[in-house]
Amino acid sequence: MSTTISRHPDIASLMSYVAGSLPEPLAAGVSAHVSMCTECRRRLRDMELIGAELFRASPALRARKIEITVPDLEQDGGAREKPVPHANRAAEKLPEPIARKYGLAFDTIPWRPIGEGAWHYRLPLSPGVEGDLRLFKFAPGYKFQLHGHGGAEFTLVIDGAFSDATGVYRRGDAQDLDDETQHQPIVDEDLGCVCLIACDRPLES
Amino acid sequence: MLEPSFVDLLDRGQSKAWGRMSDLLGKIATERSGDAFRRLFEQYGPRLVAYMMRQGADAATAEELAQETLLTVWSKAALYSSDKGTPTTWIFTIARNLRIDALRKTVCWQELSDELAETIPSDDVAPDHAASARERQERVQAVLGTLPAEQRDVITLAFIDGMSQSEIAAQLTLPLGTVKSRLRLAYEKVRNALEDLR
């Protein structure tokens, strides 16, 4: 599933993600990539060790004086059922975290047109969270205008491919851009492209 | 004088404490031992409260979240196994997830790695064996001890204070790119230190 993924999120994004301090839309994007990418899951495991070590050793947290009440335990509360696997998960093309959180399936995304050869579906974020999280579908050969970004923009290819000056992006590949990058992607001429795009600021369209 | 906690023993590199903490979790999982839970609570409770307050919780909320963290440990202890990491790593990830939900009032996009493993078909290589979880954590401890202060400050603000990259940049009056590169550099050192344990 993950053997062909060659483009990963910025290491800095993964670090903030593990720290729990990546803004929500970008965290959603990273989470979706990670669900498809063995290599990044390995990186996250190393990064969790950093978090645990800081948590353990940080002088700021070494406060012995805090009194805390031990809550009552329900003796039966420990029985935990394993999550029931989704029936068609292996066949589901949408990244698992997105499919599960939004109850969506790749084949039945309620696309809405936004201009010639482009469709989108907006994924709601938590109330008050800034940014934008959307699924996009582009027709084969769709050309973007050269554009920059008012903030961070994270793109994950779910189906098909696109390319720009930095190369080709296929299923599972992530493009993690900061606010200084301009680019002009072109969608694959045969396959078209379905992707998840996350921004830490609202998009214009 | 207070008895040194397990966590403090770990600070002093007394690695026996790892085993004792895993034993506590084992007792919680298999015997549902309330006594083991209370001991775990004494070890981690204060630190969790301090962590939550550092992340912006008031004292009451911080205590609630610390309790919730350890109650999650109680109910999920059966899922813990030492080959997945040290108890501290596991408890830290639970605490982090709870605080994203509660303090930021945003959806938490993190998975506990054991839940991830259960819900995603994966070809991951299991992270070695039980003994190496401890060794890995000790290596990370050594690396972080030698990190330049400027890198350590940035990762501390990210992990302990829960600041986004832009917030860190503003706090330290640094360009965003510098914050990113310090996060990358810190990780590279850790990665190199763990390389031969794969």
Written account of the structure:
The complex is a heterodimer of chains A (205) and B (198). Chain A has helices spanning 11-19, 24-36, 38-57, 96-102, and strands at 112-113, 118-122, 132-138, 153-164, 167-170, 174-177, 186-187, 193-199. Chain A starts with 10 loop residues before the first helix and ends in a 6-residue tail after the last strand. Chain A has a single domain, classed as Jelly Rolls. Chain A has 205 residues and is α+β, with helices and mostly antiparallel strands. Mean pLDDT of chain A is 87; it is low at 77-81. Chain B is mainly α. Chain B is built from 10 helices and no strands. Chain B has helices at 6-11, 16-31, 34-54, 59-76, 87-103, 113-119, 130-145, 149-159, 165-172, 176-194. Residues 118-125 of chain B have low confidence and may be disordered. At the A-B interface, helix 1, helix 2, helix 3 and helix 4 of A face helix 1, helix 3, helix 4, helix 5 and helix 6 of B.
Brief descriptors of the model:
heterodimer; A: 205 residues; alpha+beta; Jelly Rolls; 4 helices; elongated; B: 198 residues; mainly alpha; Rna Polymerase Sigma Factor, Chain: A; Arc Repressor Mutant, subunit A; 2 domains; 0% strand; globular
Which helices and strands, and how do they pair?
The complex is a heterodimer of chains A (205) and B (198).
Chain A: H1 11-19, H2 24-36, H3 38-57, H4 96-102, E1 112-113, E2 118-122, E3 132-138, E4 153-164, E5 167-170, E6 174-177, E7 186-187, E8 193-199
Antiparallel strand pairs in A: 1-2, 2-3, 3-8, 4-5, 4-6, 4-7, 4-8
Helix pairs in contact in A: 1-3, 2-3
Chain B: H1 6-11, H2 16-31, H3 34-54, H4 59-76, H5 87-103, H6 113-119, H7 130-145, H8 149-159, H9 165-172, H10 176-194
Query: What CATH first level of the largest domain in chain B would be assigned?
Result: Mainly Alpha
Q: Any idea how many domains of chain B?
A: 2
Distance between the first and last residues' Cα of chain A: 33 Å
The CATH first-level class of chain A comes to: Mainly Beta
The fraction of residues in strands of chain B falls at: under 5%
What do we call the CATH homologous superfamily of the largest domain in chain B? RNA polymerase sigma factor, region 2, helix turn helix motif
Q: Helicity of chain B, in percent?
A: over 70%
Structural class of chain B: mainly alpha
Large-scale geometry of chain A:
elongated
- The average pLDDT value of chain B, as a whole number, equals 82
- CATH topology annotation of chain A: Jelly Rolls
CATH architecture term of the largest domain in chain B: Orthogonal Bundle
Structural class of chain A: alpha+beta
User: On the 0-100 scale, what is the average pLDDT of chain A?
Assistant: 87
**Largest interface chains and counts:** A-B, 72 and 88 residues
Q: How many helices of chain B in DSSP terms? A: 10
